[in-house]
Amino acid sequence: MGYNNTKNKSYGFALFLIGCLFFIFGFITWSNSQLIPYLKIACELTDAQSYLVATAFFAAYFVMAIPSSFVLKATGFKKGMSLGLLVMALGALLFIPAAGSRNYPLFLTGLFIIGTGLALLQTASNPYVTVLGPIESAASRISIMGICNKVAGILAVFILGRITLSNVDELKARLLTLDPAAKATELDQLAAKVVMPYTIIAIALTVLAVILYFIHLPEIKEEEENVAPAAGVKPSSSADTIWAYPHMILGAVAIFFYVGVEVMSYDTFAGFGEALGYKLETAKHFASYTGYGLLIGYVFSIFGIPSVISQRKALVIAAVLSMIMVLLAMFTSGNVAVVCFAVLGFSNSVMWPAIWPLALTGVGRFTKLGGALLVMGIVGGAVLPPLYGKLAEALHSRQMAYVLMIPCYLYILYYALKGYRPRVEKV
Fold this sequence. Notes:
Blueprint: H1 5-42, H2 47-50, H3 52-93, H4 95-101, H5 104-131, H6 138-164, H7 168-175, H8 180-192, H9 195-214, E1 233-235, H10 246-267, H11 269-275, H12 280-283, H13 286-304, H14 311-331, H15 334-349, H16 351-360, H17 367-376, H18 380-395, H19 405-419, E2 424-426
Antiparallel strand pairs: 1-2
């Protein structure tokens, strides 16, 4: 694919707008790390029930990813992304009646609708960034998007945490002393705190949807959604369906495990901090440490991939480092355990930007559908956190339950060593 100056300028503006979308992804997704302890108190939930926040949000990716690919076929990338923003705004508005009635199923419905809009956005934006330039530098472009995403995530932890969880330890102690009527009044006041931020989110999403609809973005044509095969090989002669690309299917499984462990690394961090003996007022900010680690990792990816290390080798190192950090977090305590768990942000950072281009290499006209299957893998964020919650209850230890992460990273290591290889036939 040739890139003249005009095309580069057009693509640069397109990447800027997609960066704005990734900022939104990050803010809304990482808000869940504050919603989990907030809704646990406001709706009087158990640990396992509170992690259904992640389930409702990320399950939408699995349900809606394939339909999203067909929507994108009909609308193109730009209109599809605009539609996704409007769907997200609708989900955010559901938080108003949910807060008014402290109705947890309605909160979960709102989160599912937000996830539905995000599924459409992710199905469009990730392949868009991947093929909007040379595949060898795709990890760098996705890492730039990741920085937008994680800066927003860190802001979400502090902004939403300050709004919904201010003086939370005092509130928890006071609730224990109140009669049922007074307790209900306190919880109603707590639930009302979420109305203002999600109303603002809904308005911002709607405005951006309108702007995006009327602004020009370069449309990626099917013939551009292709990557030249290595010298001496050609795509498999059976490559007439998406299933003829096992490296892409295995990549979707890698995304499943990656998203599951990453969501665990920030959504469960506050609870992990409490288990280590920290007050929730302090532990509610721990998820931001994961965000800082991710930011550092993304900066490394921008400058180091592929100039210093290939995206595949970086994935190998990241998987091994992640397993070491998990084991250290499980068997240490205090600040050491917190730091080790936070380092998962750094080691996780390379995984998403590396898996996407490895999985989409050579899939050509199946790029949109392949992107949809990879987005379906995001359902790992719906499955693993509540599974972690159940395991923590069974083991009576939030710390030891992180053993669940080890097989996930082992699979990612397998993908980086062998599973990424496309099926080819000799010329």
